[in-house]
Amino acid sequence: MLSRSFLKFRYYGRLINTIERQIVPGVINGDNYIPRSVAHFSTVTGTKETPAVEKFEFHAEVKNLLNIVAESLYSDQEVFIRELISNASDAVEKRRCREMSEPADASASGVENPLEIRIETDESNRRLVITDTGIGMNRDDLINCLGTIAKSGSKDFKDVNKGKTSAEQIIGQFGVGFYSAFIVADKIKVSTKKLGSNEGLTWTWDGATGYKIEKVTDDIPFGTRIEIELKDGECSKFSKSSVIKDVISKYSYFITVPILLDGERINTMNALWTKHPREVTDEMNENFYRQLVKTHHQHLAPERPQYTIHYKTDVPLSIRALLYVPTHKVTQLEYAASSSDCTVSLYARNVLIKANAKELLPGYLRFLVGVVDSEDVPLNLSRELIQMDKIILKLKKVLTEKIMSFFMSQQKKDRVKYVNFYNGYSMYFKEGICLETDQSIKESISNLLLFESSKLKKGEVTTLKEYVERMKENQKEIYYLYTPNRQLAESSPYYEMFKNNGYEVLFIYDPADEIVMSHLSQYDRKSLAPVEQWVKNEGSKLDDETNKGQSTNMEKEEFLTFVKESLGQTKVDKVQPSYRQSDHPAVLTISNVDHTAVRNLLRTGQIKNMEYIAFLKPTLILSMNHPVIAGAMKLKKKNKELAGLVLEQVYDNALVSAGLLGDSSQMISRINKIMGGLMEQEKSTILTP
């Protein structure tokens, strides 16, 4: 759509270089469009017949230009209703401002002409009428505002009345909104009378290149009435009351001026985000949330939100935000399906600009539902697109920081409620840890994470901050262990060493948590380390200390050599003895990369079978005092083959405990062989006299 428009602009003398920039104001004069700013050149020497430099004015085919302006600026036909209602609202606000500054005009207006916008539909005649009881227009206003492209009377009014509260509700700024009606109209007739004037006027456009202005002989009330004869075909739907009601609910539901459609008040709810949070009750929030869900997010249930974030500030930007957290607990499937969703709408002065404004918040906060209204957001001419610039980035950062601060306060205020919320939305925070590039915000997100801990009962959770406060005096790292559940965590050979040394370990059960920990890397200047890393480094030192008091003999040396030969160099790089007491026959450590990285590669299928084992240079640490290892040493003397099978199973068990076993298909047949061999061994023992 945009590229075709650019070609049209070039064809018509490059009157508009880009839709994203303001159109040069000009006046329609007959069949010509004359810009107000015309290039001036100094005359230099030349002949009398042909001056060296001549001055010309731009001209344009007005009908074609109006089509370009209307059709290229607006992506949907329905937005003309939003634009005309916004203009009508501005007119009413101007009247309100005028009456405040000039009481005589207020008394002249009378109570019979209340501040409102009336819309009438006539389906049989394909007609739509929009009437406002605003300030109205005189002849100069009609020429300057309706006959001049990109001349904004509302913007001029705001500039003149800058600083006055009564001018804050003025919406218009570009001077092109009226022309959106040209998309759907065969004919437009504007009847108007300005406040304080006795002269009524009509402005008429019938699809021709120009327009005409006539005096009205009959007395008409002040204000403006726009009568639109709609084009046949698809455009005729805008003469239906139900269609207009849907469009009003979508774009203009929260305009402060009452809107009556065929006599029925449509916008019955206030824009709660403009109020002070103390003025808004829980019931008002519930009703407002249901209205948002009904008009913009029908996939959500109209239930009571579990959290409400109401934020209002003018520094460093003008921001009015009202955001909700749905009560619904998000499933993994719903989370994955929502990766491109956004349920926050952008408003400007109570008028919807964009229903799904992804630019306002980072993607990991897409679970929030609500409204952000900011006068500082730079919009394009059609008010349908947000211009990405430093202001948007600043707005995004301010909102994100406020949201993080809110959840932090809720975590402290009511831990039980926060845990319930976290269980349904934790995956979004984890996504934020992985994707957020702002380190300060990333740290804020890390404060919101919850974990089970070896120091707490099952089901109880802790934060990273609370963990750090409990750390041992000489502890330099935050330790965590990944297992599918708590039972496996507490029976892990890696956790066993920590339990014996008094270190607290965070238990994580979701594979995504491992990725989160690797992205987070550190917290409060303390590294986050998987327990396997500690076992490889500090655990080996403890084993060395324990082994010093143990005597070595030829039998043990031969057994360790036998273990390495039985497993093969592709499976194990070193075999080390350990004489500390342990409930596990063996534990595995790797050298080149950490366990987390390998587990992620296994999950994603980037490495298969045992092809990766040699690269890892694993060290198998055998608990020499464990019954299985002691039994294998004895079994080796009687049945080397069976002893070798037992040691292979010990090795695979260690891989399972480390989460590094990629293919378990051989385990079943091996276990069957081991059981068969043991039965034969037992049988021969019984038969031996």
From TrEMBL:
HAMAP family xref list: HSP90
Entry's family note: Belongs to the heat shock protein 90 family.
Protein name: HATPase_c domain-containing protein
One protein family per Pfam: HSP90
Gene3D superfamilies hit by this protein: 3.30.230.80, 3.40.50.11260, Heat shock protein 90, C-terminal domain, Histidine kinase-like ATPase, C-terminal domain
Keyword Transferase: no
Keywords linked to the UniProt accession: ATP-binding, Chaperone, Nucleotide-binding
Parts forming coiled coils: none
Species of origin: Strongyloides papillosus (Intestinal threadworm)
Phylogenetic placement of the source organism: Eukaryota, Metazoa, Ecdysozoa, Nematoda, Chromadorea
UniProt GO molecular function: ATP binding; ATP hydrolysis activity; ATP-dependent protein folding chaperone; unfolded protein binding
UniProt keyword Chaperone present: yes
Chain ranges passing through the membrane: none
Sequence positions that bind ATP: 83, 87, 132, 137, 151-153, 173-178, 224, 383
Highest taxon of source: Eukaryota
